[in-house]
Design a protein that fits this description.
The chain is of the alpha/beta class. The chain is 41% helix and 26% strand. The protein has 2 domains: 163 residues, Spore Coat Polysaccharide Biosynthesis Protein SpsA, Chain A, CATH 3.90.550; 78 residues, no CATH class. Strand 6 and strand 7 form a beta hairpin. The termini are far apart.
């Protein structure tokens, strides 16, 4: 199968270099940038990727714009902090040129503070990433976007390695951006919050991830992740509460 890879990025040259290095099997690589001033252009040139520019539209619309710039019918949407493993690349390459399914999901394994997380509700983590753009595409959600397709979604073997948070600084920076966008999205849907609900939801998130979803089995890294995720929930719903009061 001939596949276009679609990536959005901003100021992540080092991660982008690692990501592009795993996409040699793709017929085309489209990188949609939002005004990076680092080595993004040089990284793209080194890997033969086509670099395009756009303003930030939110995750869903920006990713869809990257998809629209692709020339192949089948698109692999991949994030800058992800890497396609050899097994997954082989599985994609071996697909028929015109398969029946409209899309394929892949299993993603993520790292937190240098540890692979196999519990906490983070694994297994199947996400739709390879799809026929004539039968599917991204929704318009500004955060927590997803691919919507008309037709069957099949599964591919192999893993997608995910490196979202190698440091707490990285986690905290993303937390602020993501919770602000998520709260605004909930507010636009007519949702409202309270401080009491924010506290209850955050505590529930910790115990669900740490106890019910086995975060305790991931050691100290898993416990820190569960605590950090609890604070993510707290931040999101406190911001929602403040939006309701403004």
């Amino acid at each position: 199968m001939r596949v276009s890879a679609a990536i959005i990025t901003r100021q992540q040259a080092a991660a982008l270099d690692r990501c592009l290095g795993s996409l040699g099997f793709c017929a085309e690589i489209v990188v949609l940038d939002q005004g990076s001033t680092d080595e993004t252009a040089a990284v793209c040139a080194r890997h033969g990727a086509r670099l395009e520019q756009t303003e930030w539209l939110g995750f869903g619309p920006t990713k869809q714009r990257a998809v629209d710039l692709c020339t192949e019918r089948w698109v692999l949407s991949i994030d800058t902090d992800e890497v396609v493993t050899t097994e997954l690349a082989a599985a994609i390459t071996d697909l028929e040129a015109a398969p029946g399914p409209a899309a394929y999901s892949v299993n993603r394994l993520s790292r937190f503070l240098g540890h692979w997380v196999r519990h906490c509700g983070w694994y297994p983590d199947r996400v739709v990433r390879l799809f026929d753009r004539e039968r599917g595409g991204f929704d318009d959600r500004p955060v927590h976007e997803s691919v919507r397709v008309q037709g069957e979604v099949a599964r591919l073997p192999g893993l997608l390695h995910h490196y979202p948070y190698e440091s707490m600084e990285q986690y905290i920076a993303k937390l602020d951006r993501y919770t602000t966008a998520a709260a605004a999205d909930l507010h636009a849907e007519g949702r409202r919050g309270s401080l009491a609900a924010a506290v209850v939801r955050s505590q529930a998130a910790f115990w669900r991830m740490w106890l019910l979803q086995g975060g305790v089995l991931d050691g100290w890294a898993g416990t820190v992740l569960c605590q950090a995720s609890s604070f993510y929930v707290l931040s999101k719903y406190v911001k929602l509460w403040r939006l309701g009061r403004s």
